[in-house]
Amino acid sequence: MKISQRVQRVEYSAIRKLTPVAKKAEENGKKIYHLNIGAPDIEVPDIYFESFKNVKKGALPYAPSEGIKELRNAVSKYYNDRNIKYSPEDIIITSGASEAILFAVEAVADYDDEIITTDPFYTNYNTVFQQLNVNIETFKTSPKDGFKIPDKETIEKSVTDKSVAILISNPTNPTGAMYSREELDRICEVAIENNLFIIADEVYREFIYDGNEFISFGELEGIEDRLILVDSISKRFAACGARIGSIASKNKEFMAAMDKLTTSRLAVATLEQIAASKLYEETDSYFKRVNEEYKSRRDTIYEELNKIPGVQVEKPKGAFYIMPTLPVKDSEDFAKWLLESFDIDGETLMVAPASGFFKNPEDGKNMVRLAFVLDNDKIKKCMRILREGLKEYNSRNE
Domain boundaries in the chain? Predict the structure, then answer.
């Protein structure tokens, strides 16, 4: 018997690559602070859990493959309140944004086709590409200018005769960049001129700082036929475990393809959809409160990183990630060493080595992605562990 070459090609996510090392460290009695994964510690609104109290006993049938009406209506209203004109018929509910991205790529790309994205990019995009035998092409963004989208000519160099779509995360995982109207327009121009889909991953749209204005691809005119909008409640309402996402498009042919794929997996969990529909009843005051909390954490981690000798870092405009350059030659070796060989009073830190977020792993060799999903006191403790860890690690390797 054998395991398929398709699966053997799939690499472990950079976010979870060191999980076996972390588990062993915990078994040995260490407490680990996890800044490696974007799992918010914010409380899910009570209305989500209260909805389960009203569930009647009896049979629990499949939900419709496209999602229950209540949730599709709720997502549609949420969009339209933000000048993103999608009807419930334009929306399909998925098992998280991960399934939405998997299905979107599967629907638009054949074997050996190419998807274009930023460099660096969310590591699990590559997992999807590897599963589907789709190639990745990138255009570079630089920490020196806050990982902005480059000029149109640079983007166009990534386009080949095998390109079928541009996949953009905004605000961005892993860098925390947020793109201006001008940057989005450049993406749209390249997509239109080269007949490409735009897959827009906007799951962090609520987390925008310093008075910056978020603009959705869904607000832009002239791309309605090529826009595929991916979303989720995982970050918005801190409900990662619910596994409720969505995909929206006005392209009827694409939506028919999505219908085939969602039918093949039958349905998304019924009770979680009912509960998720209630979450969208939350007012803007909830988003304001959560946004303020993440901004405070962003400011704390940015200030603490700037105190560490040799660290270079840009302040993110959105999401809850920051991507510093560390004074080490190999951040993966350092991250592993933190788990295996270093602690302060029995506590250590887990980070995501950045190599897995780049097309060429060498480009992220001395960077890490940190998720500021812990409270300020814990972030300060984490940054002390990082500072002292760097000092000891580098002194041992001199």
Answer: 5-43+285-396, 46-279
Question: Does domain 46-279 sit in CATH 3.40.640.10?
Answer: yes
pLDDT at 229: 98
Other Cβ atoms within 10 Å of 18 Cβ, number: 22
Q: Which residues pair with 312 in a beta bridge?
A: 325
Sheet of 197-201: strands edge to edge? 91-94, 245-248, 227-232, 197-201, 163-169, 114-119, 135-140
Q: Give the CA distances from residue 101 to residues 19, 126, 175, 258, in Å, rounded to whole numbers and listed in that order.
A: 24, 11, 19, 11
Q: Residue 64: which of 366, 274, 317 has the closest Cα?
A: 274
Q: From the CA atom positions of the chain, what is the Rg in Å?
A: 21
Q: How many CB atoms lie within 10 A of CB 393?
A: 18
Tokens 């629907």 -> residue? 107
5-43+285-396 and 46-279 agree in CATH topology: no
Q: Report the C-alpha gap between 204 and 235 in whole angstroms.
A: 7
* DSSP 8-state secondary structure symbol assigned to residue 158: T
Residues 6+ apart with CB under 8 A from 147: 118, 120, 141, 172, 175, 176, 177, 314, 323
Closest by CA to 5, choosing from 123, 98, 130, is 130
Looking at the DSSP bridge assignments, the partners of residue 353 are: 368
Residue 369: both structure tokens together: 């992605």
Mean pLDDT, the chain, whole residue set = 95
**Spatial separation of the C-alpha atoms in residues 14 and 36, rounded to whole Å:** 9
Residue whose token pair is 């039958």: 266
Position 130 pLDDT exceeds 80 = yes
Q: Does domain 5-43+285-396 have CATH number 3.90.1150.10?
A: yes
